[in-house]
Design goal:
Length: 295
């Protein structure tokens, strides 16, 4: 079988190299350039003809990444690639999964449609599935979702002496209970009300007695960071030790990372989005997902 060729879109080169190494593939090069008027120039510097191609592109801040990604997939097909898969460690546009107000775009479906047209398969890490049961509800291509929870539990077990796992809202309970069980730690779930993109209120109503344990806040995404910042702030007001904040996807809009540090929190994320807080490596997890999907 021809060895797969991995191409990392800008910022994804290290992940593309890691996956190629784990799966016995090669890495290829892409030249990308923005014309002065903002249009994209794209050229494959590696021959893709006859090769199964895997494009690696995490989709935080997705709008600027989306057109070059679609151009890359379409060009690879024109150049004769033997299939084009997408590894998106963070999959964007999963939150607008319903028309909450008349006239709204259900962007999760539209992005799924665009990616399903451009790619043959998709591998991602913990997409924000809220009202969808699975990616199959909106994607028409084979997909594989891999879960970072066991790696998070592992990291906590090895790095935190006496943890108490805390979910910032009821949505996080599925996460937090699994992480806590594997880490052999107790857990609590707080109550959150979101009034706007950057307006979140959290109550410690569901918090059990922490005793001498370290509070470890666990969530799937730190986006605006308001959830973690507010959770860290309310914990501080009741006099707990400074929390450790652990998330799979650290997007850190609006300098959220700096604001979290200001609350005295330590932050750890998985490397689905490159950031200095990355401490949990999901490459092997994604390699296993690719292997399963392309076997
Ligand atoms: C909630 O639905 C999610 O699990 C996260 O809590 C949320 O997306 C975090 O968003 P932000 O960082 O903007 O508060």
């Amino acid at each position: 079988m021809t060895a797969p060729l991995f191409i990392g879109m800008p910022g994804n080169e290290a992940m593309a190299r890691a996956l190629a190494q784990m799966l016995g593939g090669d890495t290829g090069q892409l030249e990308l350039h923005a014309f002065p008027d903002g249009e994209t120039y794209l050229r494959f510097l590696t021959d893709v003809a006859g090769r199964p191609l895997v494009i690696v592109c995490t989709l935080d801040r997705p709008d600027a990444k989306f057109l070059p990604l679609i151009f890359a997939a379409a060009t690879a097909r024109e150049l004769g690639a033997a299939g084009v898969g997408l590894v998106a460690p963070y999959l964007a546009y999963m939150r607008q999964d319903r028309r909450f107000k008349p006239g709204e775009a259900v962007t999760s479906r539209q992005v799924a449609e665009l990616l399903s047209n451009a790619f043959d398969w998709l591998v991602t890490v913990d997409p924000h599935l809220h009202r969808y049961a699975s990616l199959g509800d909106i994607y028409r291509i084979p997909t594989r979702v891999v879960h970072a929870a066991p790696l998070i539990s592992d990291w906590i077990r090895h790095n935190v002496g006496n943890p108490h796992i805390i979910g910032p809202d009821s949505e996080s309970e599925q996460w937090v209970s699994a992480v806590a069980k594997d880490a052999g730690a107790p857990y609590s779930v707080l109550e959150k009300i979101r009034r706007g993109d950057r307006d979140v209120a959290i109550s410690t109503h569901g918090l059990r007695d922490l005793g001498a344990r370290t509070p470890v806040l666990v969530d799937d995404i730190i986006s605006s960071g308001r959830t973690m910042i507010e959770a860290a702030r309310v914990l501080k007001t009741i006099g707990t030790a400074a929390p450790l904040c652990v998330a799979v996807h650290g997007l850190f809009a609006d300098d959220a990372d700096a604001l979290l540090l200001k609350q005295g929190a330590r932050v750890v994320t998985a490397n689905t989005v490159p950031h200095q807080t990355n401490a949990i490596d999901v490459a092997a997890l994604m390699a296993a997902g690719i292997r399963e999907l392309t076997a």
